[in-house]
Design brief:
This protein has about 325 residues and is α+β, with helices and mostly antiparallel strands. The protein has two domains: about 160 residues, ph1033 like fold (Roll); about 120 residues, 2-Layer Sandwich (Herpes Virus-1), CATH 3.30.40. Helices cover about 35% and strands about 15% of the residues. Strands 1, 2, 3, 4, 5, 6, 7 and 8 form an eight-stranded mixed beta sheet that branches. A two-stranded antiparallel ribbon has the order 9-10. It is elongated and about 80 Å long.
Amino acid sequence: MRVADMMRPDGHVFLKSEWAPISDYWPAVSFTKRSVGIDLGQRFKPGRDILIYVGTTSELTRDPAHRSRILSAVVPEPNRLHETRKIIPAESWAWSMNYNGARWPHSLAIVQAASIAGPAYPYAREIVPKAYASFAAMENRGWFVEAIGDERDAVMALEVIPLHLNLAPDVIAYLGLRASLHVDIPKSVKQEVSRMAMLIIDRVNSGGEVSVRTNPIRFAPNISELSALLTRLWQDDQGGDCALCGAPIHATTGNEMMKASADRIDSTNGAYNESNVQITHLACNLAKNQWGLHHFEEWIAALRGVDVTEDVGGSPVDGRSVPASR
């Protein structure tokens, strides 16, 4: 695998001086000045561009084998500037505060990463001499630069080893939200997801209140995580179909019975999480909750013309004959 495989042929190759290769120790690209992160975020397009880590020449790059070398190829998520302390391990932030103070308070999260193949990292001055020399210009101190022409091609030809980064929960939640808002997802689905998410939040807030009966205590993630979860269930896991009857869910329907509904798989479990939520038609959800999953499945089978006078175990259904219908 090469750097070129992480970007488009017409993409930009940006370079930024760093004190170490990308790793779980610091899974973010960080900045002293907020303006630098904003500028990179505005110019960088994931899937098109790549950001290359180049080791500094100073002792801040603690391993001499990393100094002035091309270390990593990364893809940051450019749409949100995070507080660094919230998206790197606590021990990493504590070390940084102890030795450097709050020197890099702003960060972009890294969503794809690779290490430049060794055994020795290539010298930047041999691969990108002009771009590397431009780091010394006063206007580029603490900033990033771009490799162009033959230097760009030389970087794209470098071999890389893909890395998996363990991202912070705050980053995962944000990436999920970005995915749920993706341009390819129909607007009608986004609106239905938003409606279901708000209904869940309302139910969670009313959990434990006494009405005709006592509602179970309910739990749900924040609205961003919830929207991402519901979108993933609808679009990917269920392919747009009801988890109970298997028929398509239409986001634009005017039939209340056929509207999308977030159903807790185990109604005694108050959690709205990945293992306990599915998307169904509202009518299917209500029917299952009123009469139980077993009777609901018999009813669906009857609608499909299956003889349900006996259940799957061979015993009569309530001792009555249930006529088949279509």
